[in-house]
């Protein structure tokens, strides 16, 4: 019987199997030769003390004990080519995992994606980065894999109560992700590796008889007597089905507008908005690891911070160690930032969204837009940023201390944001209440993380697509829209997820509930 242990070791021990075996042998008062195998179940970093430690949960197998390397395999997916059909709108994690779950349950998914396939998106990402050209259907937010594909590939979620996180991680491993994601406390695939996994998921859907339609935008949802009948695409094609899983993501404003126009119940939802702050990664390492140089056995340090400022939460969001800032506009005439990291997290800079929670009352100046008030609030800030930065994809930027002191920065060093920056007093971008909270908040951040509050940190504005500004209400038990039969609002865009894992979980849940009503 293997022994399960929780241990804490130095980083160099955790990184070297020989040293780890020696440590375990000493701990258990046995000879090293008696240990056949050590399986690492969970790994996390403890940087609370000056000497950084690695927490490990391990299974120790002794000589003579049965040990087999477990292989994670895909479920036994059925061929559903001739099965009943369900439309899935959106090929982000919610839509793709909904489609896989439908196949597993014997139902044919028709996945409709406005953007291009995961490889085709790259040309449009190059165009927005180098030429400032925004393709409204293919960008960092729209296209196969959704916003997460080219926006870091973080797999950490706090939403443990929402569903089986390990099941989603195991499916990703079966589709080609490193098994390490099952072990790490904050798993991460990396923007450079995730596209192949997404492509393999799509190929499995097609192999099993499902359909995936790219560059196909839904322009109307057919409803008769408050029941779903199908959709119409931009080419005028009608695709009929009695069930729609609507998994369009948090930036599909045209879908929100369509639902509002058709008098389908939606509601404004609070979200968070702010800036994306970039520091030298070496500075974050020094702060987090309390050392001048992190060494070869520690990864680039992340950080997580939250403060209450004037009754509002101000916090880090989607922190990207060793990463870059990307232009994530989805329409011409707006500027939006986000961050991502490659799998090795080996870039020289660290960035994080630093955002402030908004309340429904903040959207009162846009009350005439009804349920779209929050979306219009968001849009107005993105458009103002575009105008102030020179009406290109350059982003308004300011040094952190200068921002808190209302000074226009005399110079902005080159940052990881490829389209470039324009020195702007960021108080011009945001409403006064939001500006004041962020100014006070950064000073407070500096008191908790010594060295964080510095003019070496560059703020890029805005970080505005943290979550959907609209919720599409659904029944808690059936997950069906409160008024439209056969409509299943799903994932981030509907207001029920926040990240790859929680969106995938929600996609599976919606697929299961959808199929239950078809039997």
UniProtKB/TrEMBL annotation:
It comes from the Bacteria. This is FAD-binding protein. Keywords: FAD, Flavoprotein. The lineage of its organism: Bacteria, Pseudomonadati, Bacteroidota, Flavobacteriia, Flavobacteriales. SUPFAM superfamilies: FAD/NAD(P)-binding domain. Residues 270-466 form the FAD-dependent protein C-terminal domain. The keyword Protein biosynthesis does not apply. It comes from Flavobacterium enshiense DK69. Pfam families: FAD-depend_C (PF21688), FAD_binding_3 (PF01494), GIDA (PF01134). One of its GO terms (molecular function) is FAD binding. Residues 85-116 form the FAD-binding domain. Its cofactor is FAD. Residues 213-250 form the MnmG N-terminal domain. InterPro entries: FAD-bd, FAD-binding_protein, FAD-depend_C, FAD/NAD-bd_sf, MnmG_N. Signal peptide: none annotated. The keyword Flavoprotein applies.
């Amino acid at each position: 019987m293997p022994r399960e242990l929780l241990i804490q070791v130095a980083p160099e021990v955790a990184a070297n199997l020989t040293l780890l075996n020696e440590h375990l042998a000493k701990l258990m008062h046995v000879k090293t030769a008696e240990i056949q195998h050590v399986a690492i179940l969970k790994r996390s970093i403890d940087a609370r003390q000056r000497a950084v430690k690695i927490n490990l949960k391990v299974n120790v197998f002794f000589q003579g004990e049965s040990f087999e390397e477990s292989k994670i395999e895909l479920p036994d997916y059925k061929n559903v080519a001739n099965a009943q059909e369900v439309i899935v709108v959106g090929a982000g994690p919610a839509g793709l995992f909904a489609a896989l779950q439908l196949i597993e349950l014997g139902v044919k998914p028709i996945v409709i994606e406005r953007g291009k396939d995961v490889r085709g998106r790259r040309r449009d990402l190059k165009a927005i980065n180098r030429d400032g050209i925004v393709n409204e259907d293919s960008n960092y937010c729209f296209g196969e894999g959704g916003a997460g594909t080219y926006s870091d590939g973080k797999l950490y979620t706090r939403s443990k109560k929402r569903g089986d996180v390990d099941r989603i991680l195991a499916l990703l491993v079966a589709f080609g992700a490193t098994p390490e994601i099952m072990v790490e406390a904050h798993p991460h695939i990396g923007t450079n590796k995730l596209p192949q996994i997404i492509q393999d998921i799509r190929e499995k859907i097609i192999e099993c008889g499902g359909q995936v339609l790219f560059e196909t935008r839904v322009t109307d949802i057919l409803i008769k007597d408050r029941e779903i009948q199908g959709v119409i695409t931009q080419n005028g094609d009608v695709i009929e089905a009695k069930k729609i899983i609507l998994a369009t993501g948090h930036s599909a404003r045209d879908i929100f507008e369509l639902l509002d126009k058709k008098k389908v119940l939606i509601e404004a939802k609070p979200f968070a908005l702010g800036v994306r702050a970039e520091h030298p990664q070496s500075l974050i390492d020094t702060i987090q690891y309390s050392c001048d140089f992190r060494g070869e056995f520690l990864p680039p340090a992340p950080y997580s911070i939250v403060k209450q400022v004037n009754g509002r939460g101000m916090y880090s969001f989607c922190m990207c160690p060793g990463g870059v800032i990307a232009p994530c506009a989805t329409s011409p005439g707006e500027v939006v930032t986000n961050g991502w990291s490659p799998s090795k997290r080996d870039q020289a800079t660290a960035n994080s969204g630093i955002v402030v929670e908004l309340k429904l009352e903040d959207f009162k100046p846009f009350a005439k837009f009804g349920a779209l008030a929050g979306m219009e609030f968001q849009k107005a800030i993105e458009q103002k940023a575009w105008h102030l930065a020179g009406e290109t994809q350059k982003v308004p930027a300011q040094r952190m201390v200068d921002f808190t002191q209302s000074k226009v920065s005399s110079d902005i060093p080159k940052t990881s944001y490829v389209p470039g920056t324009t020195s702007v007093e960021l108080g011009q971008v945001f409403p006064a209440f939001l500006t004041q909270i962020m100014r006070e908040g950064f000073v407070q951040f500096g008191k908790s993380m010594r060295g964080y509050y510095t003019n070496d940190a560059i703020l890029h504005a805005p970080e505005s697509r943290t979550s959907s500004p609209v919720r599409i209400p659904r029944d808690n038990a059936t997950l069906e829209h409160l008024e439209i039969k056969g409509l299943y609002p799903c994932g981030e865009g509907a207001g029920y997820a926040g990240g790859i894992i929680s969106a995938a979980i929600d996609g599976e849940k919606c697929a299961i509930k959808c199929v239950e009503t078809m039997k």
